[in-house]
Design brief:
The protein is mainly alpha-helical and about 80 residues long. It has one domain. It is built from three helices and no strands. The termini are far apart.
Length: about 80
């Protein structure tokens, strides 16, 4: 359940970045707006990792989920950015 929430939040952040980029710079700014999400998502994933460590959960399992989510979404975002750079 928690993984699904994280995926939903990531897509909301991506939509927000795309809307702000589209308003600020038009269609040409959308790839850069999507690329801005990568460091934002990394900060969010680090916050989750810190929370897991402080809660004495099984870090190895949670860390693998965090890294998987970060990798999948980074690949998605970079695939949106790369052809239009």
């Amino acid at each position: 359940m928690h993984t699904r929430i994280l995926i939903g939040v990531e897509f909301l952040l991506l939509a927000g970045c795309l809307v702000v980029g589209g308003v600020a710079g038009g269609y040409a700014a959308l790839p850069k707006a999507a690329l801005v999400l990568v460091p934002l998502w990394l900060v969010g994933m680090m916050a989750i990792a810190i929370r897991v460590k402080l809660s004495d959960a099984w870090v190895a399992m949670e860390l693998s989920i965090v890294l998987l989510l970060f990798a999948v979404h980074s690949i998605l975002i970079l695939s949106l950015w790369w052809p239009r750079r």
